[in-house]
Amino acid sequence: MLSLLHHSNLVNLIGYCTDGDQRLLVYEYMPMGSLEGHLFDLDPDKDPLDWNTRMKIAVGAAQSLEYLHFKANPLIIYHDLKSANILLGNDFNPKLSDFGLAKLGPVGEKTHVSTRVMGTYGYRAP
């Protein structure tokens, strides 16, 4: 399923490996790390993100959610939006990662999906 999702603000799946009961997903390298690393526990010699960069990251994250929730086929409901799951490329270009809690959206005549909470607390689509 992940290999079918293509958007400039979603981390690219490069490959996978399965060996017995072991599973490994290989994603593209994101050189700037996660947004979490730029917001919390900053080194004293490191400047915090300026507002223009923060807005660029927020818009990119919103665009990825718009794609997943309204344009992907099938629709994907992303359940775990948090700073640790927003990875940053060069020039702080954001990409959403960690689709472990994502669910397929309503398909056909179905009108809703389960709202059972799993994993960490984060964004939950309406």
From TrEMBL:
<dbReference type="InterPro" id="IPR011009">
    <property type="entry name" value="Kinase-like_dom_sf"/>
</dbReference>
<keyword id="KW-0418">Kinase</keyword>
<protein>
    <recommendedName>
        <fullName>non-specific serine/threonine protein kinase</fullName>
        <ecNumber>2.7.11.1</ecNumber>
    </recommendedName>
</protein>
<keyword id="KW-1003">Cell membrane</keyword>
<dbReference type="InterPro" id="IPR008271">
    <property type="entry name" value="Ser/Thr_kinase_AS"/>
</dbReference>
<dbReference type="InterPro" id="IPR000719">
    <property type="entry name" value="Prot_kinase_dom"/>
</dbReference>
<dbReference type="GO" id="GO:0005524">
    <property type="term" value="F:ATP binding"/>
</dbReference>
<keyword id="KW-0723">Serine/threonine-protein kinase</keyword>
<dbReference type="GO" id="GO:0004674">
    <property type="term" value="F:protein serine/threonine kinase activity"/>
</dbReference>
<keyword id="KW-0808">Transferase</keyword>
<dbReference type="Pfam" id="PF00069">
    <property type="entry name" value="Pkinase"/>
</dbReference>
<keyword id="KW-0547">Nucleotide-binding</keyword>
<keyword id="KW-0472">Membrane</keyword>
<feature type="domain" description="Protein kinase">
    <location>
        <begin position="1"/>
        <end position="126"/>
    </location>
</feature>
<keyword id="KW-0067">ATP-binding</keyword>
<dbReference type="InterPro" id="IPR020635">
    <property type="entry name" value="Tyr_kinase_cat_dom"/>
</dbReference>
<dbReference type="GO" id="GO:0005886">
    <property type="term" value="C:plasma membrane"/>
</dbReference>
<dbReference type="GO" id="GO:0004713">
    <property type="term" value="F:protein tyrosine kinase activity"/>
</dbReference>
